[in-house]
Amino acid sequence: MFSKIIATGSYLPSNILTNQDLEKKVDTTDEWIRSRTGIERRSIADPQQTTSDLGYEAAKKAIDRSGIDKHEIDLIIVGTCTPDVPTPNVGAIIQEKIGLKDFPAFSIEAACSGFVYAMNLANKFILSGDSKCALVIGAETLSRITDWEDRNTCVLFADGAGAAILKPSEDPGIIYSKLGANGAYSDLLYVPYGTSKRPLKEQRNDNFLQMKGNEVFKVAVKTLESIAKDSLKEVNMTSEDIDWFIPHQANIRIIQAVSKRLNIPEKKVIISLTDHGNTSAASIPLALDQSIREGKIKTGDTVLLQSFGAGFTWGTVIIKI
Ligand code: COA
Q1: Fold of the domain built from segment(s) 2-170
Q2: Which of 39, 75, 91, 178 could bond 106 through an S-S bridge, CB–CB 3.0 to 4.6 Å?
Protein backbone atom coordinates (compact mmCIF):
# COMPACT_ATOMS: atom_id res chain seq x y z
CA MET A 1 0.00 0.00 0.00
CA PHE A 2 1.19 3.53 -0.86
CA SER A 3 -0.04 7.09 -0.49
CA LYS A 4 -0.56 8.66 -3.89
CA ILE A 5 -1.17 12.24 -4.93
CA ILE A 6 -4.48 12.37 -6.81
CA ALA A 7 -4.51 16.15 -7.38
CA THR A 8 -2.64 19.35 -6.63
CA GLY A 9 -3.55 23.02 -6.48
CA SER A 10 -1.85 26.31 -5.75
CA TYR A 11 -2.62 29.94 -5.20
CA LEU A 12 -0.63 33.14 -5.51
CA PRO A 13 -1.93 36.55 -4.45
CA SER A 14 -2.50 38.85 -7.42
CA ASN A 15 -0.27 41.65 -6.11
CA ILE A 16 3.14 41.23 -7.81
CA LEU A 17 6.24 42.90 -6.38
CA THR A 18 9.09 43.10 -8.90
CA ASN A 19 12.79 43.63 -8.29
CA GLN A 20 12.31 47.09 -9.84
CA ASP A 21 9.68 47.84 -7.19
CA LEU A 22 12.17 46.79 -4.51
CA GLU A 23 14.82 49.14 -5.98
CA LYS A 24 12.50 51.95 -4.87
CA LYS A 25 12.20 50.63 -1.30
CA VAL A 26 15.77 49.62 -0.34
CA ASP A 27 19.34 50.06 -1.57
CA THR A 28 19.40 47.21 -4.08
CA THR A 29 19.30 46.54 -7.81
CA ASP A 30 17.42 44.14 -10.06
CA GLU A 31 20.82 42.88 -11.29
CA TRP A 32 22.02 42.09 -7.73
CA ILE A 33 18.83 40.24 -6.81
CA ARG A 34 18.74 38.24 -10.05
CA SER A 35 22.41 37.29 -10.02
CA ARG A 36 22.62 36.47 -6.27
CA THR A 37 19.24 34.77 -5.85
CA GLY A 38 17.59 34.08 -9.24
CA ILE A 39 14.42 35.86 -8.09
CA GLU A 40 12.73 38.38 -10.44
CA ARG A 41 9.30 38.91 -8.91
CA ARG A 42 7.13 37.59 -6.10
CA SER A 43 3.49 37.71 -4.91
CA ILE A 44 2.44 39.58 -1.79
CA ALA A 45 -0.87 39.00 -0.01
CA ASP A 46 -3.35 41.85 0.28
CA PRO A 47 -3.51 43.28 3.82
CA GLN A 48 -6.82 41.52 4.54
CA GLN A 49 -5.63 38.11 3.23
CA THR A 50 -4.36 35.61 5.80
CA THR A 51 -2.41 32.37 5.47
CA SER A 52 -5.62 30.34 5.79
CA ASP A 53 -7.18 32.34 2.91
CA LEU A 54 -4.24 31.43 0.67
CA GLY A 55 -4.25 27.80 1.80
CA TYR A 56 -8.01 27.57 1.28
CA GLU A 57 -7.72 28.82 -2.33
CA ALA A 58 -5.00 26.25 -3.11
CA ALA A 59 -7.03 23.48 -1.43
CA LYS A 60 -10.16 24.43 -3.36
CA LYS A 61 -8.31 24.00 -6.68
CA ALA A 62 -6.88 20.63 -5.62
CA ILE A 63 -10.35 19.42 -4.52
CA ASP A 64 -11.97 20.63 -7.78
CA ARG A 65 -9.33 18.88 -9.90
CA SER A 66 -9.43 15.65 -7.89
CA GLY A 67 -13.08 14.96 -8.67
CA ILE A 68 -13.64 13.76 -5.09
CA ASP A 69 -16.59 14.73 -2.94
CA LYS A 70 -14.99 17.10 -0.40
CA HIS A 71 -16.63 15.05 2.38
CA GLU A 72 -14.18 12.22 1.59
CA ILE A 73 -11.41 14.32 3.18
CA ASP A 74 -10.68 12.96 6.67
CA LEU A 75 -7.40 14.71 7.51
CA ILE A 76 -5.94 18.19 6.98
CA ILE A 77 -2.32 19.03 7.74
CA VAL A 78 -0.91 22.48 7.02
CA GLY A 79 2.77 23.38 7.05
CA THR A 80 3.21 27.04 7.97
CA CYS A 81 5.37 29.34 10.08
CA THR A 82 3.04 32.30 9.57
CA PRO A 83 -0.27 31.13 11.07
CA ASP A 84 -3.25 33.51 11.06
CA VAL A 85 -3.25 33.50 14.90
CA PRO A 86 -1.50 31.41 17.60
CA THR A 87 -4.70 29.43 18.04
CA PRO A 88 -6.91 28.03 16.51
CA ASN A 89 -4.53 26.34 14.12
CA VAL A 90 -4.58 27.05 10.39
CA GLY A 91 -5.67 23.47 9.60
CA ALA A 92 -8.83 23.87 11.66
CA ILE A 93 -9.51 27.31 10.15
CA ILE A 94 -9.20 25.90 6.61
CA GLN A 95 -11.36 22.91 7.56
CA GLU A 96 -14.14 25.31 8.53
CA LYS A 97 -13.66 27.43 5.37
CA ILE A 98 -14.03 24.32 3.19
CA GLY A 99 -17.21 23.42 5.12
CA LEU A 100 -15.94 20.23 6.80
CA LYS A 101 -15.76 19.02 10.41
CA ASP A 102 -15.19 16.15 12.84
CA PHE A 103 -11.75 14.87 11.77
CA PRO A 104 -8.14 15.82 12.64
CA ALA A 105 -7.01 19.17 11.23
CA PHE A 106 -3.78 20.73 12.43
CA SER A 107 -0.78 22.76 11.40
CA ILE A 108 2.88 22.08 11.97
CA GLU A 109 5.70 24.57 12.26
CA ALA A 110 8.85 23.37 10.52
CA ALA A 111 9.51 26.58 8.53
CA CYS A 112 10.44 25.88 4.90
CA SER A 113 10.23 22.13 5.55
CA GLY A 114 6.57 22.45 6.59
CA PHE A 115 5.06 20.83 3.48
CA VAL A 116 7.51 17.91 3.42
CA TYR A 117 6.92 17.36 7.15
CA ALA A 118 3.16 17.43 6.50
CA MET A 119 3.47 14.94 3.60
CA ASN A 120 5.51 12.60 5.79
CA LEU A 121 2.84 12.71 8.50
CA ALA A 122 -0.07 12.31 6.09
CA ASN A 123 1.71 9.29 4.57
CA LYS A 124 1.87 7.71 8.05
CA PHE A 125 -1.84 8.40 8.67
CA ILE A 126 -2.69 6.75 5.33
CA LEU A 127 -0.41 3.73 5.78
CA SER A 128 -1.83 3.14 9.27
CA GLY A 129 -5.38 3.17 7.87
CA ASP A 130 -6.34 6.27 9.91
CA SER A 131 -6.85 8.37 6.79
CA LYS A 132 -8.40 7.50 3.46
CA CYS A 133 -8.14 10.99 1.97
CA ALA A 134 -5.66 13.57 3.26
CA LEU A 135 -5.43 17.23 2.30
CA VAL A 136 -1.86 18.48 2.72
CA ILE A 137 -1.14 22.19 2.41
CA GLY A 138 1.88 24.50 2.56
CA ALA A 139 0.81 28.12 3.03
CA GLU A 140 2.62 31.28 4.08
CA THR A 141 2.32 35.04 4.41
CA LEU A 142 6.03 35.64 4.96
CA SER A 143 5.52 39.29 4.00
CA ARG A 144 4.06 39.75 7.53
CA ILE A 145 7.33 38.76 9.25
CA THR A 146 9.67 40.43 6.74
CA ASP A 147 11.38 43.73 7.48
CA TRP A 148 10.72 45.73 4.31
CA GLU A 149 13.61 48.06 5.19
CA ASP A 150 16.18 45.23 5.40
CA ARG A 151 17.70 44.54 1.99
CA ASN A 152 19.35 41.35 3.27
CA THR A 153 15.99 39.64 3.67
CA CYS A 154 13.19 41.56 1.94
CA VAL A 155 14.40 40.65 -1.55
CA LEU A 156 13.94 36.94 -0.77
CA PHE A 157 10.63 36.24 0.93
CA ALA A 158 7.08 36.10 -0.42
CA ASP A 159 3.55 34.74 -0.02
CA GLY A 160 1.65 31.81 -1.56
CA ALA A 161 0.14 28.38 -1.01
CA GLY A 162 0.12 24.92 -2.51
CA ALA A 163 -1.92 21.81 -1.77
CA ALA A 164 -2.03 18.10 -2.57
CA ILE A 165 -4.65 15.44 -1.96
CA LEU A 166 -3.33 12.01 -0.98
CA LYS A 167 -5.20 8.72 -1.09
CA PRO A 168 -4.23 5.10 -0.45
CA SER A 169 -3.19 3.24 -3.59
CA GLU A 170 -1.79 -0.11 -4.61
CA ASP A 171 0.31 1.63 -7.26
CA PRO A 172 3.50 3.26 -5.99
CA GLY A 173 3.12 6.84 -4.74
CA ILE A 174 5.33 7.97 -1.85
CA ILE A 175 8.16 5.45 -2.01
CA TYR A 176 10.42 7.11 0.53
CA SER A 177 10.20 9.89 3.09
CA LYS A 178 12.56 11.00 5.82
CA LEU A 179 12.75 14.07 8.06
CA GLY A 180 15.52 15.65 10.08
CA ALA A 181 16.38 18.67 12.24
CA ASN A 182 19.27 20.22 14.13
CA GLY A 183 18.28 22.94 16.59
CA ALA A 184 21.93 23.92 17.09
CA TYR A 185 21.53 26.13 14.01
CA SER A 186 18.53 28.05 15.37
CA ASP A 187 20.48 31.33 15.58
CA LEU A 188 21.10 31.46 11.80
CA LEU A 189 17.47 31.99 10.80
CA TYR A 190 14.82 33.01 13.29
CA VAL A 191 12.07 35.38 14.39
CA PRO A 192 13.14 36.90 17.75
CA TYR A 193 9.83 36.85 19.64
CA GLY A 194 6.64 34.84 19.71
CA THR A 195 3.72 34.39 22.01
CA SER A 196 5.84 32.79 24.74
CA LYS A 197 9.20 34.54 24.43
CA ARG A 198 7.75 38.02 24.73
CA PRO A 199 4.12 38.69 25.59
CA LEU A 200 2.15 39.87 22.56
CA LYS A 201 1.24 43.18 24.20
CA GLU A 202 4.96 44.01 24.52
CA GLN A 203 5.88 43.17 20.94
CA ARG A 204 7.05 46.17 19.02
CA ASN A 205 7.83 46.82 15.41
CA ASP A 206 11.11 44.88 15.52
CA ASN A 207 9.88 41.32 15.35
CA PHE A 208 11.09 40.35 11.89
CA LEU A 209 12.85 37.38 10.37
CA GLN A 210 16.60 37.54 11.07
CA MET A 211 19.07 35.66 8.90
CA LYS A 212 22.80 35.05 8.56
CA GLY A 213 22.44 34.40 4.83
CA ASN A 214 26.00 33.32 4.08
CA GLU A 215 26.06 30.68 6.81
CA VAL A 216 22.56 29.42 5.94
CA PHE A 217 23.74 29.05 2.35
CA LYS A 218 26.70 26.83 3.24
CA VAL A 219 24.82 24.52 5.64
CA ALA A 220 21.92 24.25 3.15
CA VAL A 221 24.13 23.04 0.30
CA LYS A 222 26.00 20.52 2.47
CA THR A 223 22.84 19.16 4.14
CA LEU A 224 20.81 18.89 0.94
CA GLU A 225 23.62 17.06 -0.84
CA SER A 226 24.09 14.58 1.97
CA ILE A 227 20.40 13.83 2.63
CA ALA A 228 19.69 13.33 -1.07
CA LYS A 229 22.59 10.90 -1.42
CA ASP A 230 21.47 8.99 1.71
CA SER A 231 17.84 8.87 0.51
CA LEU A 232 18.70 7.55 -2.94
CA LYS A 233 20.99 4.93 -1.42
CA GLU A 234 18.27 3.75 0.97
CA VAL A 235 15.87 3.06 -1.92
CA ASN A 236 18.58 1.63 -4.19
CA MET A 237 18.22 4.43 -6.71
CA THR A 238 20.65 6.76 -8.41
CA SER A 239 20.04 10.31 -9.55
CA GLU A 240 19.41 8.85 -13.02
CA ASP A 241 16.23 7.23 -11.69
CA ILE A 242 14.87 10.67 -10.77
CA ASP A 243 12.78 12.32 -13.51
CA TRP A 244 12.31 15.61 -11.67
CA PHE A 245 14.04 17.32 -8.74
CA ILE A 246 11.99 19.85 -6.77
CA PRO A 247 14.21 21.41 -4.13
CA HIS A 248 13.03 24.11 -1.73
CA GLN A 249 13.06 27.36 -3.68
CA ALA A 250 15.32 29.67 -1.66
CA ASN A 251 18.21 30.64 -3.91
CA ILE A 252 19.05 29.50 -7.45
CA ARG A 253 22.73 29.23 -6.50
CA ILE A 254 21.90 26.77 -3.69
CA ILE A 255 19.79 24.72 -6.13
CA GLN A 256 22.51 24.74 -8.82
CA ALA A 257 25.24 23.75 -6.35
CA VAL A 258 23.16 20.85 -4.95
CA SER A 259 22.04 19.60 -8.39
CA LYS A 260 25.65 19.63 -9.61
CA ARG A 261 26.86 17.65 -6.59
CA LEU A 262 24.06 15.12 -7.19
CA ASN A 263 24.72 14.91 -10.95
CA ILE A 264 21.14 15.92 -11.71
CA PRO A 265 21.10 17.77 -15.05
CA GLU A 266 19.56 21.25 -15.21
CA LYS A 267 16.69 20.08 -17.45
CA LYS A 268 15.38 17.86 -14.62
CA VAL A 269 15.46 20.61 -11.98
CA ILE A 270 12.29 22.60 -11.32
CA ILE A 271 12.95 26.29 -10.73
CA SER A 272 9.95 28.37 -9.70
CA LEU A 273 11.63 30.94 -7.44
CA THR A 274 12.11 33.28 -10.44
CA ASP A 275 8.43 34.18 -10.21
CA HIS A 276 7.57 33.08 -6.66
CA GLY A 277 10.53 34.10 -4.43
CA ASN A 278 11.02 32.06 -1.28
CA THR A 279 7.54 31.14 -0.01
CA SER A 280 8.83 28.79 2.72
CA ALA A 281 6.43 25.85 3.28
CA ALA A 282 4.49 26.82 0.15
CA SER A 283 7.48 26.67 -2.19
CA ILE A 284 7.54 22.93 -2.95
CA PRO A 285 3.78 22.41 -3.47
CA LEU A 286 3.67 25.58 -5.59
CA ALA A 287 6.53 24.30 -7.76
CA LEU A 288 4.94 20.84 -7.96
CA ASP A 289 1.54 22.15 -9.00
CA GLN A 290 3.01 24.59 -11.51
CA SER A 291 5.12 21.84 -13.12
CA ILE A 292 2.12 19.53 -13.42
CA ARG A 293 0.03 22.32 -14.94
CA GLU A 294 2.81 23.12 -17.43
CA GLY A 295 2.84 19.45 -18.49
CA LYS A 296 6.42 18.92 -17.32
CA ILE A 297 5.66 16.40 -14.56
CA LYS A 298 3.47 13.58 -15.84
CA THR A 299 1.79 10.48 -14.42
CA GLY A 300 4.41 7.80 -13.73
CA ASP A 301 7.30 10.26 -13.21
CA THR A 302 9.54 9.85 -10.18
CA VAL A 303 10.01 13.12 -8.30
CA LEU A 304 12.49 13.99 -5.56
CA LEU A 305 11.17 16.66 -3.18
CA GLN A 306 13.72 18.22 -0.83
CA SER A 307 13.22 20.83 1.84
CA PHE A 308 15.52 22.86 4.08
CA GLY A 309 14.53 25.57 6.51
CA ALA A 310 14.85 27.36 9.82
CA GLY A 311 15.57 25.16 12.79
CA PHE A 312 17.36 23.85 10.83
CA THR A 313 14.79 21.36 9.57
CA TRP A 314 15.00 19.27 6.44
CA GLY A 315 13.17 16.48 4.67
CA THR A 316 13.01 14.29 1.60
CA VAL A 317 10.09 12.70 -0.22
CA ILE A 318 10.54 10.47 -3.26
CA ILE A 319 7.21 10.05 -4.99
CA LYS A 320 5.79 8.47 -8.14
CA ILE A 321 3.15 10.75 -9.59
N1 COA B 1 21.13 44.33 -2.67
C2 COA B 1 22.39 44.74 -2.84
N3 COA B 1 23.40 44.37 -2.03
C4 COA B 1 23.10 43.52 -1.04
C5 COA B 1 21.80 43.05 -0.81
C6 COA B 1 20.79 43.49 -1.67
N7 COA B 1 19.52 43.11 -1.55
N8 COA B 1 21.80 42.21 0.26
C9 COA B 1 23.07 42.16 0.69
N10 COA B 1 23.86 42.95 -0.09
C11 COA B 1 25.29 43.17 0.01
C12 COA B 1 25.83 42.87 1.38
O13 COA B 1 25.64 43.97 2.25
C14 COA B 1 27.30 42.62 1.08
O15 COA B 1 27.94 43.88 0.95
P16 COA B 1 29.46 44.08 1.48
O17 COA B 1 30.28 43.09 0.70
O18 COA B 1 29.71 45.50 1.18
O19 COA B 1 29.37 43.72 2.93
C20 COA B 1 27.25 41.97 -0.31
O21 COA B 1 25.97 42.29 -0.87
C22 COA B 1 27.42 40.47 -0.27
O23 COA B 1 26.60 39.96 0.76
P24 COA B 1 26.51 38.43 1.04
O25 COA B 1 25.60 38.22 2.20
O26 COA B 1 27.89 37.85 1.11
O27 COA B 1 25.83 37.94 -0.32
P28 COA B 1 25.53 36.48 -0.78
O29 COA B 1 26.14 36.27 -2.10
O30 COA B 1 25.78 35.47 0.30
O31 COA B 1 23.95 36.54 -1.00
C32 COA B 1 21.95 35.85 0.10
C33 COA B 1 23.10 36.84 0.09
C34 COA B 1 21.06 36.16 1.30
C35 COA B 1 21.17 36.01 -1.18
C36 COA B 1 22.51 34.39 0.19
O37 COA B 1 23.47 34.33 1.22
C38 COA B 1 21.44 33.38 0.47
O39 COA B 1 20.53 33.20 -0.32
N40 COA B 1 21.56 32.65 1.57
C41 COA B 1 20.64 31.60 1.90
C42 COA B 1 19.37 32.21 2.35
C43 COA B 1 18.28 31.20 2.48
O44 COA B 1 18.28 30.23 1.76
N45 COA B 1 17.36 31.47 3.38
C46 COA B 1 16.23 30.67 3.56
C47 COA B 1 16.58 29.32 3.98
S48 COA B 1 15.15 28.38 3.96
Answers
A1: Peroxisomal Thiolase; Chain A, domain 1 (3.40.47)
A2: 91
